[in-house]
Amino acid sequence: MGIRSLTRTEAERRAALLTVERYDVDVDLTALPDGPEVRCVSTVTFTCHEPGAESFVDCAAEVVSATLNGTAVTPAGDGRIPLPDLAGHNVLRVESIQADTAAGGGVHRAVDPADGEVYVWMSFEPDEARFVWACFDQPDLKAVHAFTVTAPAAWAVTGNSGEAQVEELGTARRWTFPDTPPLAVYNTVVNAGPFHEIRREADGHDLGLYARRSLAEVLDRDADEIFTLTRQGLAFYGEAFAMQFPQRRYDQVFVPEFGGAMENYGCVTWSDMFLRRAAPTPAEQELFAKVLLHEMAHMWFGNIVTMRWWDDLWLNEAFAEFACHWAAERATRYTDAWAGHLVGDKLKAYLADQGPVSHPIHQPIHDVAQAASIFDNITYPKGASVLQQLMTYVGEESFRAGMAAYFARHAWGNTTLQDLTDALGKASGRDLDGWRTAWLATAGTDRFSLEADGETVTLVAAGTPRPQVLAVGAYARKGEVLERRALVRVEVTQPRTPVPGLPPADVLLINDDDLTFATARPDPTTRNVLFHTAAQLPTAISRGVAAATVWDMLTTGEATAAEAGQCITAVLAAETSDAVIEPYLTLAANIAELWAPPGEGAELTAAVARTCRDLAADSGRRQVALRGLARTAATAEDLAWLREQAGDDVDLHWRALVRAAELGGDVSSEAARLLDRDPDPDAWIRALTVRAAVPDAAAKAEVWQKLAVDRAVPVSAVGQVAAAFWRPAQDALLAPYAERYLEAVPHLHQGGMIPAMVFTSHLFPLHAVGSGYIETAQRTSDKAAPVVRNTLLERSDTVRRMLRSRTGRP
Questions:
Q1: How far apart, in whole angstroms, are the C-alpha atoms of residue 546 and residue 567?
Q2: Model-level pTM?
Q3: Which of 9, 72, 632, 759 could link 609 by a cystine bridge, Cβ 3.0 to 4.6 Å?
């Protein structure tokens, strides 16, 4: 019998029937140094509002014993334990074992290849705590949690609630943590291992950083920056939400073989891939800052106030994604954060919102399996942009006042969309019902253009637009650049909106300052002007708005890859904001490699390579430029120059080897020598990436086995290896793996939500396929779990657009 997914109806019934008072969870990790097992005893104290009724508790681990009020109860075999004849007050005790700590859900055992040390982490969103211990695994049954953890004596243990009492037990130690505040089960955590630890006091908070010992030097290098960002974020959110983070201790734990980061209350877990051995680029530094601030925002959006059910996931994720950009811009040195958002994730959202998986930000969610499918580009970057528009729409002062009232009223409880719109509507004096329906309950992207009739300019929507405030910028030529002469904000309520006060201009830019989530189109007479002048706009955000229009026209077949590639490469060459150089490089290289017809890709790639060589003359951009050249170098001369410039930079030498391997060079001995001298314990992944790029059948077979079958590559590195595997001009070698991908689809959900998304997306073939394959892939998705189905449909739609662009027909 399979593990059942909790339905909304079941969750509502259980929440109406039960109130959970507390969890006392005893976790035994002492078997992990030599074996896979995590043993737990979960004692759940709860009341039943209808004595005599029945319910169930979630437990997908092996149940050793289970008693309800002293009477044995028996698991049903579907990840649940029936609870018959409930009393008014109940005590449930379940002893369980989870032995699948390599590829199972909820808990993971990782071995550091540097020294053989074992580390264990837990991560439970959306409903994976049940794979570790017995619990009522739904967000609106919040309760106090008390953890007692027994671990090997040399290990440190981290949890949600701060300083633990530690008892010595000879070869082990017992860590007894204080009670947490009321938390949803998925916001709890236990991490453990022989960590390197750094602590610091800041503004009354006790801040901690943890990483595996082999990364101690990197953590030491980055600690000042991490502590600074943490202090700035806590101060900004405390002031913006009129509620300080209520716990003194705030830990951040970097662990191996983890995907992304997770916002556990008071103890954020990170992939330690964020601790980069190579000096991080400006874009990587900004990404780190935004992830840190995103997870921190969840302390309020998700932990202190939690959605009642998964249809309001956006209350967590869209708000955290919005808040991290808001905080970065206002409270840190990353003042171009919104420009980075636009050039990066927002372009993905525009594409997704015009494809087969477009959905309302807020939508009915039948069960948790469906909920796992909406951790996507609609919920995150579109949601963040919509919230930026909401703050623009009601005004920042009203927005802050509404958020303060929301947290004051609902702290430690659960909420719905209506609770939030009520708070913001009252603070702003605006009726937000129409706004809520248009933006949150309706899928799709507005599109605007301009009509000029003499001195009159009108903003024209394609269809009925959402209520929103946006700006139109007027730019006039001044030498080799454009200078903004006016910025006019208008409130859109109808398909046609006059834009008063615009002076004569060479370029009119719709959605200047990027205040809303909408695409734009130039009229036929100004189309070419947009493509040729985007690079001359004066700010990162104005250039980004123009580039977004060009990109959207490429994806909808209204511009060729040559047009888009030339425009984006020109913007790249002119860009003044360090943090967006790397995203533009990626975009330009992607257009050349994935969107251009075969006869045009080489020249577009060469243009990017020339730009990289020019940028490398600037010492502040040298590292990023050389990385870009490592992807786009097409000649032996380029590669030789790159290797010379790389000097002692091991990271750049690995990147150059990947490109040399793809171009047919024999790099096996060089890769072996580099692996020997690279101090990174994960350098084997770099060597595998080189092997993935080799145009050789044996190499492809070896890499596919490790990547897709054995899943030996950490989830955080799958994209890196897969990108080297799926290379242009290798169709004959790659064709068999396109079919193997389809065969794997029914099993891609294994291992939990994040691995499912990562493997489904990155293993999808970018080459050696045609339109017939896309149709087959989309049909195959019908047999997959929801998270796999949605990821596959989104990816296949993107590749379908690429294939159309490769034909050279706009």
A1: 10
A2: 0.96
A3: 632
> C-alpha dihedral over 349, 352, 353, 356, to 10 degrees?
-170
Of 138, 178, 182, 186, which Cα lies nearest the Cα of 159?
178
Q: CB-hemisphere CA count at 13 Å for 539?
A: 18
- Report angle CA 404, 405, 411 to the nearest 5 degrees: 85
Range in 201-205, 401-405, 739-743, 783-787 with the lowest mean pLDDT: 783-787
8 Å CB contact between 289 and 231: no
Provide the 3-class DSSP secondary structure of residue 464: coil
- The closest of 684, 616, 628, 634 to 655, measured between CA atoms, is 628
Handedness of CA 783, 787, 791, 793 (dihedral sign): positive
Question: What pLDDT is recorded for position 1?
Answer: 64
User: Which contiguous run of DSSP H or E holds residue 114?
Assistant: none
- Write out pLDDT tens, residues 654-690: 999 999 999 998 999 999 999 999 989 899 999 999 9
> In 616-750, which ranges are continuous DSSP H helix?
622-632, 636-646, 650-662, 668-677, 683-693, 697-704, 718-725, 731-744
Let me know if 491 is exposed, middle or buried by CB neighbors in 10 A (0-12, 13-18, 19+). Answer: exposed
pLDDT digits (tens, 9 = 90+) for 441-481: 999 999 999 998 878 999 999 999 999 999 999 999 999 89
Per DSSP, the residues of 759-792 read HHHHTS-SSS--HHHHHHHHHHGGGS-HHHHHHH
**In this structure, what token pair is assigned to residue 1?**
């019998």
Pairing of strands 446-453, 456-461: antiparallel
Q: Which two tokens stand for residue 358?
A: 């477009």
Asked about 117 being catalytic, the answer comes back as no
Q: Which two tokens stand for residue 349?
A: 């959202």
Q: Find how far residue 256's CA is from the centre of its chain.
A: 17
Edge-to-edge, what's the strand order for the sheet holding 481-492? 481-492, 468-478, 507-510
Q: Name all domains of the chain by residue range, CATH numbers in brackets.
A: 1-193 (2.60.40.1730), 195-445 (1.10.390.10)
Residue reference for tokens 């995150």: 380
CA distance 384 to 326: 10
Complete DSSP assignment for 739-756: HHHHHHGGGTTTT-HHHH
Report the amino acid identity of residue 412: W
Residues found in the chain: 810
Greatest distance between any 2 Cα atoms in the chain: 87
DSSP letter (8 states) at residue 171: S
Q: What is the pLDDT of residues 360-380, one digit of tens each?
A: 999 999 999 999 999 999 999
b/e map 103-116, b = 16+ CB within 10 Å? ebbbbbbbebebee
Tokens (6 digits) for 389: 């528009």
34-80 per-position pLDDT tens digit:
999 999 999 999 999 999 999 999 999 999 999 999 999 999 999 99
Coil, strand, or helix at residue 6? coil
Instruction: Say if CB 471 and CB 511 are below 8 A apart.
Output: yes
CA 746/CA 163 separation, integer angstroms: 44
pLDDT on residue 715: 92
Q: Between vectors from CA 798 to CA 795 and to CA 800, what angle results, nearest 5°? A: 110
412 and 180 Cβ atoms separated by less than 8 Å = no
Q: Which member of 295, 575, 582, 662 is catalytic?
A: 295
